[in-house]
Amino acid sequence: MTNCSVSVIIPLYDAEKYIRQCLISVLASKFTDYEVLVVNDCSTDNSVEEVKKLLPHFDGRLKILSTKKNSGGAGIPRNVGIKNAVGKYITFVDNDDFIMPTALGEFFELAEEFQADVVHTEKCLVFNDRGETKFKWEELGVQSDEPHDEFVDVPTLETDDLGERINRYLRGKFFWLPWGKFYRREFLIKNKIDFLQVRFSEDMVFCFKCMCLAEKYLRVPNITNIHRVLESSTSKQSYEVRIALEVMTKVVAEVDKFMSKLTFFKDNQSSRSQVVEYFLRTHFPVAKNFSQNISPHELQKILFDEWQNPKLDSRGKNLVVAYLLTEKTLTR
After folding, report:
1. Where is the domain boundary, 230, 260, 293?
2. Are residues 208 and 267 located together in one domain of the fold?
């Protein structure tokens, strides 16, 4: 396929139980000018075989790509998908999720009508995999008990005032999951937006960059995605504290490096600091979750030892110090 309207990118790892359902939901789409790029991240089960069974049904619109080695997360497979995509727009679907039959068509029409760089849905349907098949509404992006009066009822372009966007971001109004969104491929390529090579939180950085750089960021009330919550999903995996610290350091350093290049943050250092603090606060619960089996004092020792790591640059050392001095890190 030389070109198409939409590239659907699906990172794949050990999802033989779900990938068929995921692909069938795309196949059921009423919009047909798309390609599907399934990027296998060195699966150890029969996931790829399940994908191959559906190849004839896609009439050449389904491709199977592979990473050279398992990356431990969805970021690198998504990057492979972006690099190989030919669609005017890109959307991501997790290998155990679904999309609505009208999702691609609605996304495409809205993106074209508003000439949007990013189309952002604020709600999805979610269910778990424990036999509870009843769908429930989940409003994404609100992380407080505030009234949900900021959700849109009609397609609405986000303000082009980056300061206002940042204020809304710091209040949790931009959820950082890459699915449930539609991206103009040229926008991603022009701005060199891809996923950071870390085991988790790569989507947080990706979505933050999109939020900052999109000239036209469109919020819509449409329900496009059905999200399956799995206890064994990547976001539920357990990592050692050292790995959590390494990821936190890379994530925050990348965000700070990105902001250092934007005029707005050069002129508004307080906003830059608030964003860094926001990312740090977001990772505090991560460190807490990854240290359930060790005492606060043991955690403190690990952090102190890591602070002396010669491989850490000065920025990384500062982040470790922030951890050591933050009571939340040492509180269960």
Report:
1. 230
2. no
Query: Distance between CA 295 and CA 3 in Å, rounded?
Result: 55
Q: Give residue 330's pLDDT.
A: 45
- Alpha helix (H) residue ranges in the chain: 19-27, 47-53, 75-84, 103-114, 162-170, 185-190, 202-213, 241-260, 263-267, 269-289, 296-307, 314-324
CB 228 within 8 A of CB 18: yes
Q: Which two tokens stand for residue 165?
A: 């966007």
Q: Which two tokens stand for residue 23?
A: 């692909």
Encoded tokens for 176: 């950082």
User: How far is residue 167's CA from residue 173's CA, in Å, rounded to a whole number?
Assistant: 9
H or E stretch covering 62: strand 62-66
Q: What pLDDT, on the 0 to 100 scale, is given for residue 286?
A: 54
Quote the domain boundaries for residue 136.
4-230
**Quick one: the chain helix, strand, coil %, rounded to 5?**
45, 20, 35
As a whole number of angstroms, the distance between CA 132 and CA 143 comes to 24
* Confidence at residue 104, expressed as pLDDT on a 0 to 100 scale: 97
- Indicate the number of domains in the chain: 2
| Whole-prediction pTM | 0.83
Quick one: angle between helices 241-260 and 296-307, nearest 10? Answer: 50
Q: For 317, phi and psi rounded to 5 degrees?
A: -65, -40
Are residues 196 and 297 both part of a single domain?
no
In which residue are the tokens 């990172």 written? 11
Both 263 and 201 in one domain: the answer is no
Query: Can you give the pLDDT at residue 247?
Result: 76
| Residue labelled with tokens 């075989």 | 49
Q: Which residues of the chain register pLDDT less than 50?
A: 133-135, 138, 141-147, 234-238, 327-332
Alpha helices in 85-198 (DSSP H): 103-114, 162-170, 185-190
pLDDT of residue 251: 85
* Residue 2 confidence (pLDDT): 81
